[in-house]
Amino acid sequence: MARLLLTLGVVLVLAAALAAAVGVLAYGTTAPHDGTVEVAGLTAPATIAWGDSGRVWIEGEDEVALAAGLGYVHAADHGWAAALWRQAAQGRLSEWFGADARALDLHARALGFGGLARRTYDALPEPDRAVLDAYARGASAAFAQPGVAQGDAFIVADVVPEAWAPWDALAVERLHAYLAAPAPSADSTWLRAARADTAVARFVEADSAFRAFLGVPDGGYDRAYTLAADTSGTGRQLVQQVSGGDSALGLLAPAILRTPDRETLALTIPGTLVSPGGWSGGLGWGVLLGSGLRLEPYGGPKPPPVYSRIVERDGDETLLEVARDTTGLVLRAGRDGARPDTTAAAASDSLGRGWRVRWRGFRLGTDLGAFRALRAGRVPASFTLLDGAGLVATRAEVRVLGSPLAFAANGTTLVAQDSLARYAAEVLAAAPRGAPPPPDSLVSDSTLRPITPADREVTSAWARDRLRGLIAGLGARDSLDDVLQAPYAYLNGWDGAYRADGIAPSLFEWWLEAHRDFTGHLPDPADSLDAALLPSTLRIARAELRDRYGPLPTDWRWGRIQGGPQFPVLGTRRSAAARRFRNGYGAPGGHPTSLLPGPSIVFPDARPGRAVWTVRTDLRTGAMTLRPPTFRPFAASGVDLDAGPDGPVITLAPSDPMPAEWLTLAPPS
């Protein structure tokens, strides 16, 4: 009997332990959201409160106290994203994931994110360092909480987040500035050089793998725009579209920041003090995440070597030497682009023929001062890492920052990063003066209203206009064979909207791509030869969709084909614990030429993000309405990711009262 009871007790203990483990993996844990957390080094307390639908309030007596609160919020709510971005920026992914991540670390070390961030911190004036110190104290306090350190992502990866250093925020900022640059793999200059030189080819390959790992593929953060528009009855509005790449990690974290003399609404990037959008004291801003990256021939002297040591999870070490200074990263012709100049031949004073990668981030510096100015309601004098293109606006005026592509008509001013935005500008130009700008349909004035399918219907004027000629070029429907009857019906009734459940968008994209594969150019119905080929290329497109996705047209839905955001690392693992990190669910958005950018195979060198944020700010009141990307990070295996509830709209306003329950970060008593 005693043995039976002992056995039963062991079984019960094991069952309880298993249930606890399953509970952690299934539901995760959270950081404290009330009470008091003592933080060494703080000179003044910060008060934090969480509301429904992702709203966060942070109050403090000054900017330093707000920075501590923001650091805590970022680590508590977005700990995995901030920690993963820090690990990538420092070139330490192989400490977490072993030899498979060594090439990623070599690329990050060659670019120097971590080392340049540390040196930048040391060179900053005391007020900037005080803000970074406070942010690090807040983030470290959150990472020390079991609810954060034992979050499901860290458990699945079997890692423990380290305390946050003050310069870590600068490393993550520098990483995002680099990811905001056009990818070499999407640039014809780079690709021509890569075909001629193995050093460039290897750099491009390493860069592509690095960006893909972080869910920011070849298009980076492009297809973004900011516009200011006068609307009848509501005054001037600032609307911003921010692309987060293909990553399901939340790029933006909105917060209400309060001091006794100022109230600010800011869109912040976890792990940094960057605020690409916001409102403060009547000034609204929208900064495009963009940064220049270019390649040029180089035959000058070798820069002083920069050394770095990489330690992998199993203890293996790699010593890296790169030729990099403030003018750029030098690649010796024919050598490894991810590990430039690591051979004995690199010891000479001259590199001979080679290449130099130019990027402003190879110099010391940060955009901390620029974003501090914006959060204080001032227009910054300049930017350092980012191009600084965008808009600042008040109720009375609109000002363009930097030198973006700009468009103005009918009381609307739009700035964008790329030429495809001119098609979106045509939509704005067609709107009558005083009418609400089209992006108003993407967010709601009502509180916490779920996004409906109609909200995702974003029309491409470019696709709609081109389709008219293609349909006319096909001729009468009765003249087409049976194979083309259904494709013709789908296309003929299409209005150019890229809905997730639409079949016509997929047929249209594959049709244009099939024609380009066959002829080398997109179809021109005015050309008699192109017009004669249209039935054949449409038949090819149908066959390719059938072969790739199945015989049923319902399997060709635009949303199903385009998929959704990816969870870096965890989403690709096969273990049962990682199933909750499958591809996220999200509306695929429109076309690159629409106001809500989306994926396209017609413009393969302009691949926009699927994790798109839409923000509208009322410049009179500061009220902000934000629609985050909608995805389901906890989808179980076998669930149809094309169906399911959408996320809520987040509404923030300076007048929003702080909830009755809050957390205080306080100096030790």
UniProtKB/TrEMBL annotation:
Domain of life: Bacteria
GO terms for biological process, alphabetical: antibiotic biosynthetic process
Molecular function GO labels: hydrolase activity, acting on carbon-nitrogen (but not peptide) bonds, in linear amides
Pfam families associated with the record: Penicil_amidase
Keyword Membrane among record annotations: no
Entry keywords, A to Z: Signal
Signal peptide per UniProt: 1-26
PANTHER family to which the protein is assigned, alphabetical: ACYL-HOMOSERINE LACTONE ACYLASE QUIP, PEPTIDASE S45 PENICILLIN AMIDASE
Family: Belongs to the peptidase S45 family.
Record protein name field: Penicillin amidase
